[in-house]
Fold each of these.
Amino acid sequence: MTPAGPRKTAAYIGALAGLGLILAACSSGADPANYPEDDIDVIVPFSAGGPTDTVTRMVAEPMSEELGVQLVVQNVDGAGGTVGAGQAATAEPDGYTVLMHHIGMSTAPALYDDLAYDPVADFKPVGLVTEVPMTIVGSPDFEPTTFEEFVSHIQENADTVTMAHAGEGSASNLCGLLLMDALGVEVTAVPYDGTGPAMGELVGGQVDFMCDQTTNTTGQIEAGKVKAYAVTTPERIEALPDLPTTAEGGQPDIEVSVWHGLYVPAETPDEVVTQLTDALQVALADQMVIDQMADLGTAPVAADQATPEAHATLLQEQIESWGDIIGAGQGG
Ligand code: MLT
């Protein structure tokens, strides 16, 4: 066989490289050129009916329209969201498994020694979605009616008061830790797999109070089913104009809101991530999504935040800052 000339060799190498790319994509099962050609599972690491589930279902519909396939919510709850995130980390990197997670993605490394995944190395960020304020709410039978009364009641009765949350590292857990730290008390914490089920127990009077996202509390507050004490943002929010801020109630350190973002397994091809990011941006510009979020006290992030780059930057920053806060809290 005549030795191949340089050009032929170059052509071979080019073809091999091309083949390599296709093989790599095929080995990950992804076919970016024809993506998506099947329904896409969206893992929500908390129970159905809760705030993260609510936000996911809001964007899933317009994203489904944009991508031409269904985004199907799969609630995989437990351990403050780490069970669902762990399942997503090991899913096939073909674009058919997406994870919706929140601030809990950045707290888990500092809280779980045996975490089954690395939030940075095992995932590719698709884009941020929204940043949800939190509210401090009480069961209808809970004695305090104002935030000031709530603070003194907690400080005087810490050993008998119960607080619901969605597991270690969840947003409701973090807010609860901030609250207890600011008030210098330790109350009995009652974990659930999500604040969806916790809300049922709160309305029923099985637990005394909870710190939870407006996407789960606004409706209950407006219906008078729970007592509302304060919102954890620097300014009051439009959806609940009569609800004072924690700062107005003399507790400025109890300030937190819950950023949410979409993720795919780390080996998912960039072309697939781009398609998901584009669909997310279309969803966040959708007037119905904007109105639904406004009714529940939040809003889509700005378009320049609904990008893999902005998402990756925030995730890294939050892992570092929560690592310091939690480390300091654990006497580190
Ligand atoms: C949920 O969807 O249940 C919440 O996001 C849980 C939490 O983090 O408090």
Note: The domain at 133-231 is CATH 3.40.190.10 (D-Maltodextrin-Binding Protein; domain 2).
Amino acid sequence: MQYTVGRYLAERFAQIGIEHHFAVAGDYNLILLDELLEGGRTKQVYCSNELNCGFAAEGYARARGIAAAIVTFNVGAFSALNAIGGANAENLPVILVSGAPNTNDLGSGRILHHTIGTPDYSYQLEIAKYLTCAAESIIDPQQAPAQIDRVIRMAVLHKKPVYLEIACNLSNAPCAAPGPIEGVIEEVPTNHKALSDAVDAAVAFLKNKKKPTLLIGTRIRSVKGEEAAVKLSDSLGCAVATMASSKSYFPESNPHYIGTYWGEVSDPGVQKVFDTSDAMICLGTVFNDYSTSGWTSEPYKKEIIQVHPWHVEVGGKSFSGVHLRDFVLALAEKVTKNSKALEEFKASGAKRPEIKAANPSDALTCAELSRQIQGMLNPHSTLFLETGDSWFHGVAMTLPKGARVESEMQWGHIGWSVPSVFGYAVGAAPQRQVIAMIGDGSFQLTAQEVAQMIRNNLPVIIFLLNNNGYTIEVKIHDGPYNRIKNWDYAGIIAAFNAQDGEGKGLKAGTGKELEEAIKIAVANKKGPTLIECALDSEDCATTLVKWGKLVAKANSRPRKAD
Ligand code: DPX
Ligand code: MG
């Protein structure tokens, strides 16, 4: 078979596990979409707009490890780039492919549609370079295979998004056939000298420490270090906590697990154990203003062992070329058991407060909503937590083994979860139960993507927390801008269904109504079910109020005098 640029790309997609790619059509990418389809090895899934297309790919990457989104020039790509920034922040390899001007127009001085009206079309590539770890413009079919392979390699190695633009007259241009995929995706091996020196330094650091602890951060997932962390905790016997953004990245059923470390809003008893630990081992952690509750807890200011995806810092020395997983496994072989932190935690008797069942006919509260969602979770559940009060309810839940949580706490784009949960459901195994907690304000940004869940018969269950506005913002800094126009959220599903959809829209105003709605949602396997949950606008997690005040204080620090 004669390969073309588009078919070469399709073949590479199939070889790296991209069984579906997400797309919005436009005249700069139509031939490319044809070529991708004709290869027949990757399916096309359509989105309502390019922001959603980028986030759908981001969600697919959460389920499958890598994803692709295909968009048109400027008008499409610029919307998608927001989601690509998110994929970068969240360490998810997404390949963004944009159709681009015809090669005959390059350097011609002509003005093209969808551009800002200058004859220089290079600005999209330049912007993409800031947001990705590799960006290429294909203007010659002969060079296309090497360019495509280079961006894929960078995405796989760095677990970050990449960008390709393909001149619209080149997608069907003949090019070389793809060689073995191994040469593109093979991992770089850890450097043995750096590894053994890093492990020796860590063992020396831990030697006279009284209370080691293990903290799990977001980057552990992208480098597949989760099982290694369990081994290290077994050898060390210490207490383990996850950060809020890494909930579910360490099994909560494991006897070493004590809860979420989130500064002042940590799970009961966890902050004390970690703040008094003299040897925190931080695996893939990222500390920002949100995760430190407005800089009120800054664990990285202590002496710690900081393990990044590809380098380790310990005892005042930095070791590059050491893969997180290799370091953790090698350290697990050498550490001495020290269960002091875990014993101290157990002796404190601290545990997550149990939520008591509400009177079934009382007005629904967010506590009752949390309790019922907690009751639904099983080993096959994945719970998406949208930015807002949902974070705090989800983080406080106890997860059965195998249950996963997805959130986007670094980028924090409200509306992320609707398209991301769509993309995730496209990529997830059929037995996965996909659930999302989404605030009313967030939903209004990207609601259209529920229509794509309907189109693809995906049984996603959405809990729409209708508290009449931006409650998290109310707690950070209130004003009239935190009130939003109410929608008939459950009612929109009928509009999206039109003549052939199988989505369901339900309303719950009491605990009893919620219980009934959940039963219907669980039984609906032919499409999404949205349960609109009526909540009082002041009703939110107590941790949100506490955290909101701390973040507000950090945001309003006066400028320091010169
Ligand atoms: C904003 C946020 O209704 O959730 O639980 O009521 O807060 P809660 P909602 O979804 O409201 C979300 C709202 C407006 N953040 O409280 S968190 C600012 C913001 C953002 N992302 C984008 N624009 C604005 N995070 C894209
Ligand atoms: Mg709200």
Note: The domain at 192-348 is CATH 3.40.50.1220 (Rossmann fold).
Amino acid sequence: MVNFEQIKGFVFDLDGVIADTSIYHSKAWRQLAEELGVTWTTELSNNLKGVSRMDSLNLILKAGGKESAYTEEEKEHYATEKNTNYLNLLKDMDASAILPGINDFIEDLKRHDYKLSLASASKNSPLVLEQLGLAKYFEKRVDPATLKHGKPDPEIFARGAEILGLKPEECVGIEDATAGIKSINGASELSIGIGDPKILNEADINFTDTSKLTLENIKQALK
Ligand code: G6P
Ligand code: MG
């Protein structure tokens, strides 16, 4: 595994790592799934984490055995409907949605001259970062619209390192989704999973929640 001393950059997921917006994504998808007559389960909810908007809709339709029930145009309509609902839920969101310890962790990373980038599949990430007051820390962002493949493909995390001018083995990727951990591992970066270690069992290091995400804890985990 990687030495702590060789780490130069951190590539962050957004939803469920920096802010608790993943609950809003879930809420909005659940509403649509129920409208389409697809049973909502915890497993489905977990599988959608980190997955792009259209891929998420396709997973929902598949779970309900409806993968060929709609035209591309109808699917675009439903994806837009989910996004409208999601943006409505975000309307009043502010810095209080930042997850515990994240502000301190980011401050600490800046103090120690680590480089930071964002590898979120969300096309709403610039808006979310603005509302959280964190945009200034994430000037380097992978634009998900430019990707050939979404998570779990390594492309997004590989790009997250590239835009920092760093090699993958100098970077740490932080994720709350199984698809994201697979993407980080595929890009040969050190993976940190935030959440249930049984679900994120492929992560190199696991913290049950963001309050445990500190440089000291990462250093300890690598010893
Ligand atoms: C993140 C979230 C997913 C979401 C995806 C696309 O990865 O974890 O739940 O579906 O972004 O988000 P968007 O805001 O573009 O619909
Ligand atoms: Mg996430």
Note: The mean pLDDT is 97.
